[in-house]
Amino acid sequence: xxxxxxxxxxxxxxxxxxxxxxxxxxxDVGSSKIACLVLRFDGxxxxxxxxxxxxxxxxxxxxxxxxxxxxxxxxxxxxxxxETERAIRTAVQAAxxxxxxxxxxxxxxxxxxxxxxxxLAGRVEVHGVNVDEQDVARVLSSCxxxxxxxxREVLHAQPxxxxxxxxxxxxxxxxxxxxELSCDMHMLTVDAQAIQNLAHCVRRCDLExxxxxxxxxxxxxxxxxxxxxxxxxxxxxxxxxATGVSIFIKKHMIYADAxxxxxxxxxxxxxxxxxxxxxxxxxxxTFYGGVHATGMDDREMIEIGGDTGDWEHDRRTxxxxxxxxxxxxxxxxxLEEVRVRLDxxxxxxxxxxxIVLTGGASQIPGLDGLATKILGQQVRLGRPLRVHGLxxxxxxxxxxxxxxxxxxxxxxxxxxxxxxxxxxxYPARSLKRAVQWFRDNW
Length: 442
Description:
By secondary structure, this protein is of the alpha+beta class. It has a domain at 116-192 and 432-441: Dna Ligase, domain 1, CATH 3.30.1490. The protein is built from 13 helices and 18 strands.
């Protein structure tokens, strides 16, 4: 496990350098929009506040915000480098202009990239009377890393549970007395090329990448309230090109996955079904969309409009019931795929099965009722937590990833347990697998 933290170590050094300057940028690279927030830190390192204070908001304030239409991103992954670079530059420059300050370091999040979750376990004997940082470091390094395949890299590796002798469920075992320390860890791997492309694109924009996070993870951190994170809940982040699924319990993410479908696919279905451009289909979906048809919807006619020059073609109308008939099958398909992911993760075994829908596509009217029928759980619509200085326009569900990334920047949990291990205490078997992309690209 030692090598898995090298990426986070290098990025933490950059993050600390940025925080010493007082500003850092947040970049949410999505399939439909790219959001950039500029944070100003008040000089105190929030990581000193205590363990696991992910939902805390102290330590920073949003001083700049901008969004732009995403270009060159499909399914949450970069497909056209130059277009994505131009969109990122546009968003960052607009946020810098609002903040009135130049930003060199960004922390980025992305969806897609075929995430896979692994559960790891490690166990060591405690050397002294009390558990100290060295014992925690040794138990983390003793976790058996599975062969997660060529071309994949570790994005998050976090301990989710410690046990000391027969006592399990410990958040922080340091200072306690015992003989045998064991640990359960959650590791999330993603497609290496997706990370490399994003890192390369950020570097082409003359920015330093000071952190990476999965959108599913940070959306859950922003949209789930503290009780839901503690008792067990799933966050469904419905974006434009991908839908992220994350499960939390005891304030830790224990599972993450992604469905390669989102709101843009609903828009595409409307575009093909009504033979209208994507921009018109997006407008119709936003103003008139829904998933539950009533008797009134047969009589409510929607003017499609157009600028083809053909008077008859441009004056077409369609009933709202027909529009719902186009939208509902795709929304059902997305939710069915989400249910498959939740069943595979064993979500029904958690003490609480709350499901929170967030993301831009979650704003379709009636979606929570349809999700309750398909997922069979308590479902609510989630909005991100309020953070200081956030503009009113950036408080909707579509900004859950960006707000969660702000909290991640202030309280990065990946590094809580990253302690140096003396060479003579390294485990006997060396771990050959290392996170190479960071060394290769920086």
